[in-house]
Amino acid sequence: MWTILQGMTNEAARRLQTVKLLHTVVWAVFAGCVLALPWLARHNQRIFGSLYATAPATVLFLIAAFRIGH
């Protein structure tokens, strides 16, 4: 990571770190939703539907964040 940041300005390095952190948080939420789906499908169908709908929204969010970062 340090070698990537060496040639960057402070602003660019900060933006890269922000995008990386945001990416990690969004994927952690996405993974948590995927892992919770089997249990929720059996016990609470309303929450299951909400989490199931987050998958496409998460992908669209990551695509938008990627395009903004470039």
Structure description:
The chain has one domain (18-69). It is built from 3 helices and no strands. The protein has helices at 2-6, 10-43, 45-69.
What is the topological layout?
Layout: H1 2-6, H2 10-43, H3 45-69
Helix pairs in contact: 2-3
Q: How would a crystallographer describe the biggest sheet? A: none
C-alpha Rg (nearest Å): 16 Å
Number of helices: 3
Query: Are there runs of 5+ residues with pLDDT below 50, and where?
Result: none
Question: Any idea how many domains?
Answer: 1
Mean pLDDT: 77
Order of helices and strands: HHH
Form type: elongated
In total, how many beta strands?
0
Which structural class do the helices and strands define?
mainly alpha
Calculate the terminal CA-CA distance, rounded to whole Å: 18 Å
Percent range for β-strand residues: under 5%
Percent helix range: over 70%
Describe the structure using short key phrases.
0% strand; 3 helices; elongated; mainly alpha; 70 residues
Give a concise summary:
With 70 residues, this protein is an all-alpha fold.
